[in-house]
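Here's what a typical entry looks like (LacI family transcriptional regulator):
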Amino acid sequence: MRFENYTIKDIAKALNLSTSTISRALRDSYEISPETKKIVLEYAEKINYRANPIARSLKERRSHSIGVIVSEIANNFFSQVINGVESVAYDKNFQIIISQTHESSVRERLNVEYLTSRSIDGLLIALSSETEDISYLQQLKERGFPIVFFDRVPQQFDTYKVVVNNQQGAYDATQHLIKLGKKKIAHLTNSKSLSITKDRLIGYKKALMANHIDFDPNLVKYCQHGGLHAAEIEKAVEELIRIGFDAIFISGDKLTTGYLHVIKQRPLAIQQDLAIAGFTNSNVVDLFSSKVTAIRQPAFEMGKMATELLIKLIETKYPIAEFETRVLPTELINND
């Protein structure tokens, strides 16, 4: 049986009122008396009336929906960002549609094309680790389509962006390891193309330089897919073990948990000798025998702020010419 929702015409017929009166009453218009509003609203509630979103979008030229594109929803950081997005979107009567790229630039573009074809009002996006060409996003923006970037952001793109202070977080993590007396600090990180990779590498290098420790590029291992594939983490860790290191700074949530899974297979003595600091919003790391000093990101706040800025773009009556990048602080949680 095909589901059929009640319409304004059904309510008008049942109450012997015009459709325009019903419509205004449901919108709480001042043109309709309180008594009539009461009758209409009580009947609408009785029949569980819900406004037709398609009809509403055609009338208002808005779908009241926002697209959100992340690499993986299962990533603790991104799931917390999405919670922040929802907290603002639903309060502002926007629905969200979430897509995953799994770090694929091809899938990212397909997701964007699909979402825009569904007439979303705007897009929140953290770029995939493979993404280098964002010209198609630039073309969307030039046509007036609202886009806000968060976490993984492009350099040359005039719009709002929300990030954390990646350089400071990386500096704090590396500095903590140095204070433990560590001198040969490895760095496990994401794709070279990502903004977070570049900024966290800078912070790592600055901490080494501040403590007169030479930077060794052999101790930096890149994972193109950010830890989605166990094999790339295993390969990177094996190479580091062959070189030798006494501490490691890890640049992402999936990388941190992936590294812990790999190192868990090693003798307990190795696990205990290697100090670890990493960007992670996961509480799972506390369950491992190796203690992790965590760099926490305000993911929920990032989602809220990015959504507020996107809705601002969607609802503005005049084009916005000046944009800013909002930078949120990180927090070092010492679990030693």
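DSSP finds 13 helices and twelve strands in the chain.

More examples are in the samples folder.
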